[in-house]
Design a protein that fits this description.
about 260 residues; 3-stranded antiparallel beta sheet; 11 helices; about 70% helix
């Protein structure tokens, strides 16, 4: 856990990890009534799972692979819940425990290849869109030129922050929804294209604004305002998809595992 906190603190893209434990605790609290009614006789199967989780933790600790040690939280926590309170209670805790386990497993550099790919896609897409709008854009890798203005689609401009935040939010929605799993997974899958399209639009707008504003279009207040607009717009589109797919969170329902 100490290593995970260090990763969240040092890597901006993974700083959302600080929000995961309280969000998972919120899911548990919202399901407190279901948990009370699900409490029952413990299962010996939980003891086996707990032992496996502790063994996985020791392997990660001895090998120095902190991601493995972090992932051991899932079988350890669910195994303990099943052994003490029964399989039904463990099933109710599965989603929030999995979210926390995923956050504990993060490590620096984990998403670097994805970030580079997003940078390239954003640069290509925004240059093409701005050109279609009549803006003379020259592109060299992730460097974009409009007249004398030079912009770099850096890793912080790749949309990774929004992608991870909305994926985390999507996981919470999926955990609380009572819809069939294919609809829940489709909702999660939509996060990537929605964030990518919104980010391409953001950079394309910066390129258009660079004609009257120059490089100031990508700095300060305009940059921050466009970044906020991207996140809000992507969130609204995903909520609309959530409504269309009938995946709205339900706080009074037991999780559905139907297909």
């Amino acid at each position: 856990m100490v290593h995970a906190v260090g990763v969240w603190r040092l890597d901006q893209e993974l700083s959302f990890g600080f929000l995961v434990p309280p969000a998972a605790a919120g899911v548990v609290w919202l399901r407190r009534r279901q948990l009370r009614s699900a409490l029952g006789q413990g299962s010996r199967l939980g003891l086996v799972v707990l032992a496996g989780g502790l063994l996985l933790f020791l392997v990660g600790l001895r090998s120095g692979v902190h991601a493995v040690a972090g992932a051991s939280f899932v079988p350890a926590a669910l195994g303990a819940a099943a052994y003490l309170s029964g399989l039904s209670a463990a099933r109710l805790l599965a989603a929030p425990v999995a979210l926390v386990g995923a956050a504990f497993s993060l490590y620096r550099g984990l998403l670097a290849p994805v970030g580079f790919a997003l940078q390239d896609l954003t640069a290509r897409g925004s240059a093409g869109l701005a050109a279609a709008w009549g803006v003379p854009v020259r592109r060299s890798g992730v460097d974009l030129f409009v007249g004398e203005a030079h912009f770099v689609v850096a890793q912080s401009c790749s949309g990774m922050d929004s992608l991870l935040a909305l994926l985390c939010l999507g996981c919470l929605v999926v955990a609380l929804a009572s819809a069939a799993w294919p609809r829940r997974l489709l909702l999660l899958a939509l996060v990537i294209p929605v964030v990518l399209i919104a980010n391409v639009l953001r950079v394309a707008v910066v390129l258009v604004l660079s004609l009257p504003l120059g490089t100031a279009a990508g700095e300060g207040l305009p940059h921050e305002a466009l970044s906020a607009a991207v996140f809000v717009s992507a969130s609204l589109v995903l909520w609309l998809a959530c409504v269309v797919l009938r995946c709205q969170p339900r706080f009074d329902a037991t999780p559905s595992f139907s297909s």
